[in-house]
Amino acid sequence: KITASVGKLNLVDLAGSERQSKTEAVGIQAVESGMINKSLLALGDVINRLARGEQYQQQQIQQQMQSSKEQQKQQQILVKEHIPYRDSKLTRILQDSLGGNSKTVMIANIGPADYNYEETASTLRYASRAKQIRNKPIINKREDAVIIR
User: Fold this and answer.
1) Model-level pTM?
2) What CATH number has the domain bearing residue 42?
């Protein structure tokens, strides 16, 4: 049998979350802008919940290290928060990258201009929350792999 390591690469360029008042979008553009913002809000919600779950787990670990063995047994049950990946096509597509078996890199693009201050601050908050997520990837192997020559 042949065993191969397998993986997937996602390169995603997210649209900016511009304010409608700034872009003065009307008609179809306004609808598209609203749909983009809805997807970005869903992504932000997923990132928030994953980051919050990571913080909770770190607190539990610290408490376990400081508590008695009896308390440790009681604290080992972690309540997992529901992550709403199904709220958006974007979050469904990125599910493995966000909270799955993967190594994920996020590059945030910000602008230095004064009129972009709110968008820049929002992007930095987004990136800061995403940075808190810790995936624990393992190598994916397939024994039914076929070598391409």
Assistant:
1) 0.72
2) 1.20.58.1980
